[in-house]
Amino acid sequence: MITRYSRLDAVAIWSQETKYKIWFEIEAHAATKMAELGVIPKESAEAIWANGKDATFDADRIDEIERTTKHDVIAFLTHVAEIVGEEARFLHQGMTSSDVLDTCFAVQLARSTDLLLGGVDRVLAALETRAKEHKYTPTVGRSHGIHAEPVTFGLKLAGYHAEFQRAKRRLITAREEIATCAISGAVGTFANVDPAVEQYVADQMGLSVEPVSTQVIPRDRHAAYFAALGVVASSVERLAVEIRHLQRTEVLEAEEFFDKGQKGSSAMPHKRNPILTENLTGLARLVRSAVTPAMENVALWHERDISHSSVERGIGPDATIHLDFALHRLAGVIERLNVYPENMQKNLDRLGGLVFSQRVMLALTQAGVSREDAYAAVQENAMKVWRGEGAFIDFLKADARVTLPHDELEALFDLGYHTKNVDVIFDRVFGKN
C-alpha cells in the first residue's frame, strides 16, 4: 500500500491495531458461545471480555513472540494471555488459525467495501449533477477518435453514471459473497467446535456462515471479489481516459481544475497537465494487478495450504485502499471539472457539417435513391471537405445526384435532430423527474 494514494479511513481497516482487535473479538465471541454451551466456564468467558475488550494489543510484542513461534496466531494468543491472565487458556478451544484469519479477512474486506460503496455514491452524485448541468450542451461524438455525429456532454456523463450504477451493484454482490465466517476447526469438520459457535460469531461480526469451509473459506469468493474491484477500477480508468483526451490542447473541451499556485511542469511554465486522471489510470492498473493472483489462489491443496496467505496480505489492503482513493479522486475531478461548451461547438463545426452525412444519405434513400448511390454521392462530397476544398453543403447543392430541394437539404444540418431523445435516455439513467 502506497501512503501517497490512501485515505486514513481505508488505511485504518488494515492496521495492526484493527486486525488484532478483530482477532480478539472473534476469539472472545467464540468463548461466549462455548460458555453458553457448557464447553468452558461462564466466568472465564466473562473474564476474557472484561480484561481484553479495552486492551491495546502490542504489535511489537506479538512480533517478538512470533520470531520464536514462527506462527502469528499463536504469538497473538500468547500475548492475549499476558493481558487476560489464566482464563486465556479457554480461548481458541477446538479452533484453528484459519478460523481467525479468514473470518478477520472477511470482516476487513466487508468494511473496505462499505467505504468503496461510499466512494461510488460520491462519483454517482457528481456525475448526475454535471450530466444534468450539460444535458443539452452539444458536442461531437467520436468513434475511433474521429468525429462521428453530435451528442451532448450530458449524455456522455449519463453513460458513465449508468456504468457506475453497475459498479455499485457489483460491489454490493461482492460484499455479500465475501462476508462469510468460518469457525469449523481443523479440516472444517467441527469435530472439536460446535457449529453453533460459528453461527454466533458470524452473527456478532455481521457475517454469514460459510457452508463448507474445509479449514479455509474457499478462495473462489475472493477471486470474484477482486475481479469485481478490477472491473470497477476499469470503469474509473475509462472515465479518466475520456477526460485526458478531452483535455488535449487541440481538443480542450474539458479540463481538470487547475488550482491557484499549481505548477504543471518543472521546465515549461505554460503546462496544465491532466495529472489526476493520469494518476487514476495508474491506480486502476494497480487494482487490476490483484485479480490474477486472486484467481491463482483458488486452487489450494486439499483442505488447506497457505500459498494464498502472502498474496492476500498484499492485495487485500493494496487493492481496496487504492480503489477507495481512486474513487474519491475521480469524484473530485468530476465535481470541479472545467467544461468549455464554446470549444465543444467549435470542434463540432470543424468539419463544416460532415457530422450530418448520415442524415443526408438517409434522406436521399427516402427520396428514392438507392442506398449505394446515396452513400457514394455523400461520401465523394465529404472527401472534398476532408481535403479542404470547400463547404459540404455547397458541394451537395451542386451535385446533380443529390436530388433534395435546397431548403430540405439545409434543414438536415440541424443539431436539435440529434438531441431529440436525450430525455428518453436521461429517464432511463436517472428515472423520471
Automatic annotation (TrEMBL):
Catalytic function, reaction form: (2S)-2-[5-amino-1-(5-phospho-beta-D-ribosyl)imidazole-4-carboxamido]succinate = 5-amino-1-(5-phospho-beta-D-ribosyl)imidazole-4-carboxamide + fumarate; N(6)-(1,2-dicarboxyethyl)-AMP = fumarate + AMP
MF GO annotations: (S)-2-(5-amino-1-(5-phospho-D-ribosyl)imidazole-4-carboxamido) succinate lyase (fumarate-forming) activity; N6-(1,2-dicarboxyethyl)AMP AMP-lyase (fumarate-forming) activity
Gene Ontology BP, a term: 'de novo' IMP biosynthetic process
CDD domains according to UniProt: Adenylsuccinate_lyase_1
Enzyme class: lyase
Pathway membership: Purine metabolism; IMP biosynthesis via de novo pathway; 5-amino-1-(5-phospho-D-ribosyl)imidazole-4-carboxamide from 5-amino-1-(5-phospho-D-ribosyl)imidazole-4-carboxylate: step 2/2; Purine metabolism; AMP biosynthesis via de novo pathway; AMP from IMP: step 2/2
Family to which the UniProt record says this protein belongs: Belongs to the lyase 1 family. Adenylosuccinate lyase subfamily.
NCBIfam families named in the record: purB
Entry protein name: Adenylosuccinate lyase
Native species: Brevundimonas diminuta (Pseudomonas diminuta)
